């Protein structure tokens, strides 16, 4: 048996950060348009979209909008095959769920390797989902409940999905928060480091209980940035996008990420409601369709803030590593400080009973 090793991070995360830690040379829209025409037989006008780690374009061809994604070279074939197979599974299992459809290349391949200065990069073409990004809109109570319902339906549709790469360890899976301990040393501002350390210690003390929770393959990033809505329609949710963090993790972790993204971000959103009201509406929508056991319910509030800690640690570290993309990387980080202050003011034992 190999000797035990310290999993705490020192210089950089030992957990697989994949493309989060890898730079790549941007592909210009004109070159991407040529590749789309040559490989997919689709000719059109491309517009670059802001993303965390890859080159993504909106492509308009004969009035039809598509998404053309060229992966970071650090994204492996297994990782992208997991994403593609997830979408194919959902198309077969729950065709009414609003997720992107994968469009094969001329030769039938879903993923095509493209040469590049940083190494091969895998490209794929997908359908475009219409709607406004939920993150740009104020919250609506009925919609929060509906999002919980859709999160539950997605969970149930993926319950029998299997993939050999789904057991990978990714930094955005908060089961692995203890492995990010060394990133606390990279938080320069002591006013930020202190609450992060306090919350980190409180949550990681629950690691054994978190690791014992029921698991399956899940979206793992059911956030307002990855949901599209059309509020002129009765069923306002029109799109679930970005399956880049799909992984086998605790069901409660996936739900907690969705709940986090319904927390108030500022005084305007808070209004007269308490911090956890919107998250509770989403939770109620979820359990109306998919149950949770008492152990999951007790940990859910803490898992919500485990994601806040994870987000702060990763984004502050990555903003230093990639200063040219700092604005995009930190776009959701600042709202977390008030959320974290609220968490640290709660009695942990009482908070654990909040959703029972």
From TrEMBL:
<dbReference type="InterPro" id="IPR050249">
    <property type="entry name" value="Pseudomonas-type_ThrB"/>
</dbReference>
<keyword id="KW-0418">Kinase</keyword>
<protein>
    <recommendedName>
        <fullName>Hydroxylysine kinase</fullName>
        <ecNumber>2.7.1.81</ecNumber>
    </recommendedName>
</protein>
<keyword id="KW-0808">Transferase</keyword>
<comment type="function">
    <text>Catalyzes the GTP-dependent phosphorylation of 5-hydroxy-L-lysine.</text>
</comment>
<keyword id="KW-0963">Cytoplasm</keyword>
<dbReference type="Pfam" id="PF01636">
    <property type="entry name" value="APH"/>
</dbReference>
<dbReference type="InterPro" id="IPR011009">
    <property type="entry name" value="Kinase-like_dom_sf"/>
</dbReference>
<feature type="domain" description="Aminoglycoside phosphotransferase">
    <location>
        <begin position="54"/>
        <end position="269"/>
    </location>
</feature>
<dbReference type="InterPro" id="IPR002575">
    <property type="entry name" value="Aminoglycoside_PTrfase"/>
</dbReference>
């Amino acid at each position: 048996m190999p000797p035990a090793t310290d999993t705490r991070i020192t210089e950089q995360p030992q957990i697989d950060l994949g493309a989060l830690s890898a730079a790549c040379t941007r592909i210009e829209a004109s070159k991407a348009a040529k590749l789309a025409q040559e490989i997919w037989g689709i000719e059109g006008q491309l517009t670059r979209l802001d993303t965390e780690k890859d080159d993504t374009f909106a492509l308009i061809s004969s009035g039809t909008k598509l998404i053309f994604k060229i992966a970071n070279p650090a994204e492996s074939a297994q990782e992208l095959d997991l994403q593609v197979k997830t979408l194919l599974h959902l198309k077969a299992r729950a065709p009414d769920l609003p997720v992107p459809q994968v469009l094969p290349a001329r030769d039938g391949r879903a993923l095509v390797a493209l040469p590049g200065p940083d190494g091969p990069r895998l490209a794929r073409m997908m359908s475009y989902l219409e709607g406004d990004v939920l993150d740009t809109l104020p919250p609506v109570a009925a919609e929060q409940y509906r999002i919980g319902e859709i999160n539950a339906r997605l969970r149930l549709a993926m319950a029998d999905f299997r993939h050999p790469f789904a057991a990978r360890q990714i930094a955005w899976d908060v089961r692995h928060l203890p492995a990010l301990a060394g990133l606390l040393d990279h938080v320069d501002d002591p006013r930020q480091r202190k609450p992060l350390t306090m919350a980190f210690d409180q949550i990681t003390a629950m690691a054994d209980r978190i690791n014992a929770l029921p698991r399956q393959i899940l979206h793992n990033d059911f956030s307002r940035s990855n949901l599209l809505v059309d509020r002129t329609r009765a069923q306002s949710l029109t799109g679930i996008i970005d399956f880049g963090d799909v992984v086998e993790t605790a069901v409660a972790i996936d739900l907690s990420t969705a709940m986090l993204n319904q927390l108030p971000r500022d005084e305007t959103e808070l209004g007269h409601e308490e911090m956890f009201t919107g998250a509770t509406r989403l939770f109620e929508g979820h359990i109306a369709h998919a149950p949770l056991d008492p152990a999951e319910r007790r940990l859910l509030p803490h898992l919500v803030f485990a994601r806040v800690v994870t987000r702060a640690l990763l984004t502050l570290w990555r903003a230093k590593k990639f200063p040219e993309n700092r604005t995009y990387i930190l776009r959701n980080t600042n709202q977390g400080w008030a959320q974290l202050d609220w968490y640290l003011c709660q009695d942990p034992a009482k908070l654990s009973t909040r959703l029972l």
